[in-house]
Amino acid sequence: MYRFLLRPKWILFHIVVLASSVGMLGLARWQWNRHIERDAFVAKVEQREQAEPVELTLVLGTKPVSDIEYSRVTASGHYLADQQFVEILQTVNGFNGENVLTPLQIDGGPILIVNRGFIADGQPVPAPPSGTLIVGGLARTSQIRQTGQLTDNSDGAKLDEVRRVDLDLISERLGSAVAPVYIDLIKTVPPSPTPPDPTGLPDLSGGPPHVSYTIQWCIFSVCAVVGWVLAVRRSRRTRQRDADKAEKATTAAAPAEPVSAERPMQPSA
Which of 125, 70, 63, 136 shows the shortest CA–CA distance to 99? Predict the structure, then answer.
C-alpha cells in the first residue's frame, strides 16, 4: 500500500522535506552558537569593565588591540583643542546630536582620540579643558563602515565631521598617526568645567533573541516532518478508499451464477 512513496514525485517530496528539515536544524544550531558567542562576549566585556584601570601606554604595543578593547585605561596629556571632530547623526535617549571627539597628545606617547561625550543638536561644541590632565575611559577599536551605511567624504566641505570613529580617516585628516584605539571618556582629572554628557558604558542587556530563534527553527523542522507524515497518511487513506470503491464496483458489475432448471429426480418406490 506504500509503494506510491517510490514514485518520482514522492521521491522529490521526500528530498524537499528532508533538506528543509535538516536546513532548519542547521539554522537552529547556528542561532544557538550565536547565543553562546554573545554570552561569552558579554562575560568578557563585563570582566574587563570591572578590572582596575591600566595606563594605556603600558599596554599599547604589548597586547593585541582586541585584548585592550573594553578595558578601563588612563592616559596623561593635553588636548589639541583646535583639532576637534564631531561624530554626527547620533541619538541618545531620544535626542539627536553629536559625539565630541577630541585628540589628546599623550605625554611621551601617541595622539589618542577621546570621545568626550554627547551634545544635542543646536548646542555649541564645548572647548576641552586646557593644560595637562588625566583622562580615564573605556578603550574601543576603530569603527568600520557596515554594508548599507553611508561613507565619509574625506575631501568634503566639513572635514571636522565624521559618521563613525574611523581612526584611519581621522588620522588622515589630522595628518598625524593616532593610537590604534580610542576611549569613551568616563572621568577627567581635574574635571572639565563644561563637559559633554558621557556616553557611559555599553548597554549589553539587549541583543538579538538567539534562544527564541533557536526554538523557532526547531519547531519549524518538526513541523516539516509532521507535515510529511500527515501527507503520507492522507494519501494512503485516499488510495485505500479509491481501491475499496473500485472493488465494490467490480463486484456489483460481475454476472450472477445461472440457476439450474432441472427438477430433482424423484426417488423410486
Answer: 125
Instruction: For residue range 82-137, list pLDDT tens digits in order.
Output: 889 888 888 888 888 889 999 999 988 899 999 998 888 888 888 888 889 999 99
CA distance 57 to 108: 9
Give the per-residue pLDDT at 262. Answer: 57
DSSP class of residue 3?
G
| CA atoms of 104 and 170, how far apart (whole Å) | 13
Q: How far is CA 147 from CA 34, 150, 151, 167, in A?
A: 20, 9, 10, 18
Instruction: Give the model's pLDDT for residue 244.
Output: 67
Question: Helices 8-50 and 210-253: crossing angle, nearest 10°?
Answer: 170
Sequential DSSP letters for 17-78: HHHHHHHHHHHHHHHHHHHHHHHHHHHHHHHHHHSPPEEHHHHBTTB-HHHHTT-EEEEEEE
163: left (phi over 0), alpha (psi -120 to 50) or beta: alpha
Question: What pLDDT does 104 receive?
Answer: 93
pLDDT at 155 over 60: no
Phi, psi dihedrals of residue 9, rounded to the nearest 5°? -65, -35
Contact 179, 111 (CB under 8 A): yes
For residue 185, the one-letter residue type is L
> In the chain, what are the domain boundaries?
9-51+210-230, 71-189
Instruction: Give the three cell numbers for residue 8.
Output: 518520482
H/E/C letters for each residue in 136-160?
EEEEEECCCCCCCCCCCCCCCCCCC
